Amino acid sequence: MEKAKSSKVALRLDLVPECFIRRVAERFTLGAENYGEYNYRKGITDEKFIQERINHLKLHLSNFFIRGYADPDDNLSAVASGVAMLMEFEASSAGKLAIQNVLNRMNNVPMVSDVLYDAIADIEQAIRGEQVEKRNKNARS
Q1: Are the C-beta atoms of residues 19 and 80 closer than 8 Å to each other?
Q2: pTM (2 decimals)?
């Protein structure tokens, strides 16, 4: 008996971890309960909304790295949900353009992390300078 034939499967959705799908679905469910089903789609070309999504991504990723699992919020699913929204937006040319406009503005503004990095570098340099002065002073004594 000849076996049934089928075309090659293009997408292996079975490879996507179930916990990922479940946690992202939980996050979208929470959003639907608070703001209405598919509310986020209204923001596809809204640059302020897109900027807020990017800010949420940064916030939740930072919270995960800083607080780890001590934070009661599921920061990783918040990040994954935000990425999913941006991916849906970029699937349309208008959404992709709006995202690019936001990114262009962001690239022209110093990031808080850059400002903090520079401040920390200045402090470290000042501390090293004080330590060198102390050594020189002690060596002269």
Answers
A1: no
A2: 0.69
Q: Which residues contact 97 (CB under 8 A, 6 or more apart)?
A: 45
| 18-35 helix and 75-90 helix, angle to the nearest 10 degrees | 80
**pLDDT tens across the length of the chain (141 residues):** 788 777 777 788 899 999 999 999 999 999 999 999 999 999 999 999 999 999 999 999 999 999 888 889 999 999 999 999 999 999 999 999 999 999 999 887 665 556 666 777 777 777 777 666 766 777 776
CA distance readout (Å), 75 to 15, 25, 72, 88, 89 = 23, 14, 9, 20, 21
